[in-house]
Design brief:
Chain B: Keywords: Membrane, Transmembrane, Transmembrane helix. The complex is a heterodimer of chains A (75) and B (265). Chain A has a domain of 38 residues. The longest helix of chain A is centred in the middle third of the chain and has 23 residues. Chain A is mostly helical. Chain A has three helices and no strands. By secondary structure, chain B is mainly alpha-helical. The two termini of chain B are 26 Å apart. Classes of the chains: A mainly alpha (75), B mainly alpha (265).
């Protein structure tokens, strides 16, 4: 999280572009974050509905109202 | 201001958003779900014993019951079950929006951290929830066959994917246009590109109509309540994330200003 030390000339005002976090540093967070977010969304929206694994209907029934009200296809 | 700060802010915002979405869904949405299930059970009563109704298809896993004798009671479904869904979705959407805000920091023209975060949360709400809702609005129980759940889910997430990809491309185009010309034409080019992508996709994607003779009044109330649930979630994600990012940025600039003052002495 090291930031370049700014030149004293710009005292008090920090240009927004100076704050940019390098993509190199952010990429692993974004990749894992996207995969985790997708996993949870599939679990909440589609498991035991459109996707018939795992067997049974317990997860489907448990999150049933959330599926309908969050706009995911359900029945 | 590193990735960790943004992720933590996003997770906090998402948790609060999940709570807000639950409150809205429970107070506004559940009465409509109850009405829809009552209609569904009334319709299926002559065919079966009033429960364990399976949408008249042979695939047992596709059918399920909504009545009090279902595997999960209606009370559980409408309280802890609903909260599970809104909290889980809220936390992952909030956390990921936080990471996107970290990526957008200092990369969206000359926007300050609070403004670039607000813009990304708004783009997330529009591309992930609102535009898909306009093409494939939420449907209450009793609407939608178990036999078509596969194709309905595929086209829904297909449309979401096109909308989100269109938004990403629009941001890239707007940044390129802003460098090439200036800010306003760049942003307008991005907006135009996104509108073009979703309009073409909305025309190209198949229409889903399984409403049958479901009462229009209950359908409208249900869809409004569903949209309010999604809006409450995104509004709280955006508001809390912007407030936290702004607070962190102010502290960050205060510290930096003091260091610069000390260095200049």
């Amino acid at each position: 999280m090291a930031h370049a030390i700014p030149t004293p000339a710009a005292t008090g005002s920090v240009a927004p572009s100076d704050l940019a976090i390098p993509v190199r540093e952010l990429a692993p967070w974004l990749v894992l974050g996207a995969l985790f977010a997708l996993s949870v969304l599939v679990l909440i929206s589609s498991v035991q509905g459109a996707i018939t694994i795992p067997e049974g209907t317990a997860i489907h029934e448990w999150v049933h109202d959330g599926r309908h009200l969050l706009g995911f296809p359900c029945h | 201001m590193g990735a960790r700060t943004f992720l933590v802010h996003g997770l906090v915002a998402g948790l609060l958003a999940g709570i807000a979405a639950f409150v809205v869904a429970y107070t506004v949405g559940e009465p409509q779900i109850d009405k829809a299930i009552a209609l569904e059970e009334a319709a299926s009563a002559p065919a079966s014993d009033g429960h364990d109704h399976t949408h008249a298809d042979s695939d047992e896993s596709a059918g399920h019951s909504h009545g009090d004798e279902a595997a999960v009671s209606r009370t559980a479904q409408s309280t802890v079950g609903l909260a599970t869904g809104t909290l889980a979705v809220g936390v992952v959407l909030g956390g990921f929006t936080g990471l996107l805000a970290a990526l957008g920091l200092g990369r969206l023209g000359s926007l300050r951290p609070a403004a670039s975060t607000a813009l990304l949360a708004a783009i997330g709400a529009v591309s992930f929830s609102i535009v898909p809702f306009l093409k494939y609005p939420a449907t209450p129980p009793a609407v939608g066959s178990g036999e078509t759940i596969d194709s309905r889910t595929a086209v829904y997430f297909g449309f979401v994917a096109v909308s989100v990809a269109g938004a990403v491309a629009a941001i890239a185009l707007a940044r390129w246009g802003a460098r090439r010309w200036s800010g306003v034409p760049g942003v307008l080019a991005g907006l135009g590109a996104y509108a073009l992508v979703v309009v073409v996709a909305a025309v190209a994607f198949p229409k889903i109509d399984e409403l049958g003779d479901f009462p229009a009044g209950i359908l409208w109330d249900f869809r409004v309540s569903s949209l309010l649930t999604l809006l409450a979630m995104w509004a709280v994600i955006g508001a809390v994330l912007v407030a936290l990012v702004d607070r962190t940025w102010r502290r960050h600039s205060d510290v930096r200003a003091r260091r610069e003052l000390a260095a200049s002495l």
